[in-house]
Sporulation integral membrane protein YlbJ
Amino acid sequence: MKTKAKTIFLATAITLFALSLIRYPQQSLEASIRGLNMWWEVVFPSLLPFFIVSELLISFGVVRLIGVLLEPLMRPLFRVPGVGGFVWAMGMASGYPSGAKLTARLYQEKQISAVEAERLASFTNSSNPLFIFGAVSVGFFNDANIGIILALSHYIGNICVGIVMRFHGKSQERPKQKRLNHPFSLPYAFRVLHETRLKNEQPLGKLLGDAVRSSVQTLLMIGGFIILFSVVNKLLYMMHITQHIAVIVQYALHLFQLSKELSLPIISGLFEITLGSQMISQADGAELLEKTMATSFILAFGGFSVQAQVASILAEANIRFKPFFIARIMHGCFAACFTYVLWKPLYLHPAAANAHVIPAFFIGYSQNWMNHYWQLLHQFGPMITIAFLCLYIWLITVQWQKGQ
């Protein structure tokens, strides 16, 4: 009975989506172009270097070396192997969905178990600092100080999620899954590095080509999800479904004594974090603290667009998505609470910033640097995207010719 109901629901939903595209073709096209521009200018050129470097580090055994060195930290704190430290760092540096991609890769190479992969994916996916400081705090709120609060709340909240999720799947672990803990030893770590490199002893060109091909394939999938959810978000608004959902959200906001003006921006943010963050920053009638808390929540939640990307990556490796989704809700709550707690001690108006914790020159430098880098991405991002798409097509063509 459940399977039949699911079939009817999915068939009805996709039919309504197709009819909505026919009913609102102009709005759908505009939303699609907006999603494409975001992927084309920012997402692809900013994530591609991290993906390629990560693939090469795994192939050369550097990740195994890092894993041995970080085992004494990651195992007691998060109950994951030391290689999780590499995934955690790369996830914070490059943003969604790098943590999920690297977790899936390590699981496929049998460096972590299924339960460890679920734990690791739950706290290694986060927004990158460039997006938090450059796009949200400087671009949307025009205030670099807000970026400090958002970043601290975001990353401290992620640590709290990791500590909570260490108890996930404890009953599913069997004694034979528990690995021997090696003491901190540089000679042992370098021996592991050498053994891993020997197992993957392939020409550098082959490793580099595989890394580029795998990275571009993942980014093409990510681009598809960004465009899809940009269109879905717009269609829900055009069909007035968003307004009906907003009524329910307003009751929830009232419980926490937050402005009802944030209901529509939060709903948009639940689908796509960039649009939601921009709408929250422009919401009239809401206090700055309320806007910051709402933005912190949706940055941590990730939006259904990001979650769909992660779900696709995890599904390819047969890793369950449910723990990740629960962790995103926890992360959103943690981040919003930390934003409220850190607001008074850390948020400084420009006049106070000159006299207290953060020097004025640092604020100005940070803001100018983030703005400059963000502008460079928008200016040169499309050229980088075109170049690597051409390289990807050439690599696929060469591989196909060899297979003939």
